[in-house]
Amino acid sequence: MTQNGQDRPVVLEARGITKRFPGVVANDNVSLKLLQGEVLALLGENGAGKSTLMNILYGLYGQDEGEIFVNGAPLRVSSPHESIQRGIGMVHQHFQLVPVMTVTENVILGNEVMRRGLLDRRQAGQRIREISQQYGLPVDPEALIADLDVGAQQRVEIIKALYRNADILILDEPTAVLTPQEADDLVRVMRTLTAQGKSLIFITHKLREVLEVADRIMVLRGGRVVGETTPAEATEASLASLMVGRTVLLRVDKEVARPGAPVLEVRNLQVRDDRQLMAVNDVSFEVHAGEILGIAGVQGNGQTELVQAVNGLRSAVAGSIRIAGQDVTLASSRTVSELGVAHIPEDRQRDGIIASYPLTDNGVLEYYYREPFARGIVRNEQEVTKHAQDLVTRFDVRTPGVHVAASSLSGGNQQKFIVAREFSHPLKLLIAAQPTRGIDVGSIEFIHNQIVHKRDEGVAVLVVSAELDEILALSDRIAVMYHGRIVAIVNNGDLSRAQLGLLMAGVSLKEAMVLQQ
Amino acid sequence: MAVEGRTPEPAQPAGFRAFWARYSPLFVPILAVITALIVGAVIIGITGGDWLAAYIGLWQGAFGSPRALANTVIRSTPYIICGLAVALAFKSGLFNIGAEGQLYAGAMCAVVIGTTLKLPPILHIPMGIVAGAVGGAAWAAIAGILKARTGAHEVINTIMLNYIALRLTDWLIRSRQPLLLGDPLDTSSSRTPFIAESMRLPNIRLGETTALHAGILMAIILVFLVAWFLNRTTIGFELRTSGTNPNAAKYAGISVPKTIVLAMVLSGSLAGLAGAGEVMGVRYAVSTDFISGVGFDAIAVALLARSNPIGILFSGLLWGALLTGARLMQVRAGISIDVIRIIQALIIMFIAADQIVRWMYRIPQRKPGEEVLISKGWGG
To answer: Which residue ranges does UniProt annotate as crossing the membrane (chain B) (predicted)?
Structure first.
């Protein structure tokens, strides 16, 4: 079979896939073809139906209508076991690894090599090394998963699929959890895989990556295929508008900041992490009313601990924190919040929302005890419901109602709801940690505009993000954090993107200036 | 049209199938009970018994006469109250296996108040109830504080506190030199003195029997009080939130260690009330063979009701009915009372492994967020 004038066989084909869930048509007559040795990028907003489609291909869900063919032969039984047998492998966004077991044990899990009734670890380890070398996936087969960083864990997931002889690999938002460097490594791995005849489906909403790595691009919106294109024909802007169905601004339009008095003053702060290592070391900065200070840095350089300390969630070892003139170095998180501090936590699933609670309860997570949501200790359900409805309306959160569990919303809508909640009270200081991580372009634009709007109302804003583009788009001033220290605070525009990148990588400000000239 | 959000509930296929798909998950506990009774009948049949006669006997023994009904209600009361204790802890993310020990602590405190003070009933009865609650709360607080301060797991500590409470009670009752809480007039030294008349719960007239005491009223009030507390108060919200997602609770400004202690104290006070109720309404003393096992069966009662307080009213009654009806069943069908224990065990197995029940009755699979049966019930 030849397609698109290329002499490549079709390895995977889906025809007219339709999948309905109560209340939504997740996939509506979706068809796709994957050619051997290509990267097919599947692009779409959260809730567009990408993950549903992939879960159908992988056999986790059965489709309501439509057919799937692997190498021309129909795939009948819907089970991951069947899909694996037919050479389909999947790397999930949330890794399916056992932290206390070694790489080898994780890879062979469910597919153990036996010799005389015993596990043959050596042979398995040998095969893992071979795969690792063949595809450029460096990993130590004897290492414990818990000791590996995120990038290495992802390589283990890919090896797991290859170990089961997968020829078709589905990568579900693989770069969402990676640092820029790790993402570059992954792109290299993807090229090696396709060069050796593997076929990849790459799910993402990062437009730049799509243009960089894909051979063909398919865009889903509202469960339907709305466009097919190639990187040569597309631009970031054209893809973004296909995804959301309108033209989006990738830059945030904002006026020049008019900073007022300092709201947050951090002086010589030292904070230890969970392992008692110094995570924040001698950090000092100020955030003024009406300005956005962006903290740039590769994740794990102390930003998490810094934000926790400011919010009263982690105690400082030394130094001081003042908010609106009041010393809050040792204050509880409730005291901090009652000063008019809102916090968008970096891990929304874990810290920002309670998945099993309805939106009504999630809407008052921090304010449940205050008027009008409660009088004394008695909750006022009417006010709580009204509040949730208000948040949903004002921030255009897509949900069938306010009494559904938060887990039934897409990531972008959950985040919009959290932002809506944090913005619904009088604010002096807004702390937004990774405010748009893993959410779709449309929601990113919306949240960015809301943050700028708060700034213009005179709120002091501290944005922490691992995405340099986000920092550049939002910040008035930029602080770069590296190994627990703030290595530079500059006005946005003083340094180029590349210079900031060097600072984030640990190069000193002086050197960064020289290197760029 | 697909993901265009805020539209109301979509048009569902009409009729019984749609109704079943939507509401059948709520019936899982009931279906588990029915299935257990069917399997129980099969077991009786295989061992050569007459299952129909046995179940008729069981029914009549539990509900067949005013006296039977009164006995069932009396028997159910401590299960209901103790079930509430376990459920409140579940909802707060804690597994209180120590209801048994807390029940004894509450009962002993009630006995002390009932045997030492001389008060009019209007004061004496509330004093006894408060003493029971305080005793249970204090005993549970030990495990709560250990967990909050040191992270020591409440399951281990409440089990150990059970042993301590049981042996301590035994010693307090049996010791003659020195004479502690034993009754000097009781030659077998196996119980405390009886409490004063003024602290005994008034009886409710039901047909000819007067055995039904006011404890059941206390249980019913507590059911609604706990339901209201958990779902309609800010403190209940704090407990549920800490139990469901301690991280998010911490980020929301809730002090998780405080809620752990509070949850254990409240849970323990309920268990203590169950003990006090038994002392003040049924036995008027604590004996060495008091009502052992109630605290453990209460876990089953709470599980069967999925920690829903209103549900516990029914699962507690079921528990009491099964145990009360068992005697007549034994007489009618000549079957050992132990069959009831088997049926109770089967009910819990079908609840714990609810996949079996769901498969048998074509009930849709659990959705995310619904999966933790123990600590997250219907109300979430």
So the answer is: 26-48, 68-90, 102-119, 125-146, 155-173, 211-230, 251-276, 312-329, 335-357
